[in-house]
Automatic annotation (TrEMBL):
Domain of life: Bacteria
Pfam families cross-referenced by the UniProt entry: CM_2
Annotated coiled-coil segments of the chain: 4-31
Source lineage: Bacteria, Bacillati, Actinomycetota, Coriobacteriia, Eggerthellales
Domain Chorismate mutase, residue spans: 5-93
Organism annotation: Gordonibacter faecis
Entry-linked PROSITE patterns: CHORISMATE_MUT_2 (PS51168)
InterPro entries: Chorismate_II_sf, CM_dom_sf, CM_II_prokaryot
Name of this chain's protein: Chorismate mutase
Length: 93
């Protein structure tokens, strides 16, 4: 097998692993969204506003504390800011 063939085979292996990770990420994002929507429904009864800047900062801090790289905490903050923005825009079921 040539070096090119070896490299192509290795690329395919990594892409297959990425595809599986993406499947898991999608499942986890939907699971997270479900909990977020339940919390949104409970907030009025707890006399809480729908937006909680303090909680968002707590989420960013926790995510940063879980980080072992190679992503930087700033990258994770950007990803999570997008997740939180989308959750605010997701209609309740």
């Amino acid at each position: 097998m040539s070096e090119k063939d070896n490299s192509l085979a290795e690329i395919q292996e990594h892409r297959a692993k990425i595809d599986e990770i993406d499947r898991q990420i999608v499942a986890l994002l939907n699971k997270r969204a479900g909990h977020s929507l339940v919390i949104r429904g409970l907030k009025p009864g707890a006399h809480l506003g729908l937006y909680d800047a303090k909680r968002e900062e707590e989420i960013f801090a926790k995510v940063g504390s879980y980080n072992e790289g190679p992503l930087y905490n700033e990258n994770l903050r950007e990803i999570y800011a997008t997740i939180l923005k989308i959750m605010k825009e997701t209609p309740s079921v």
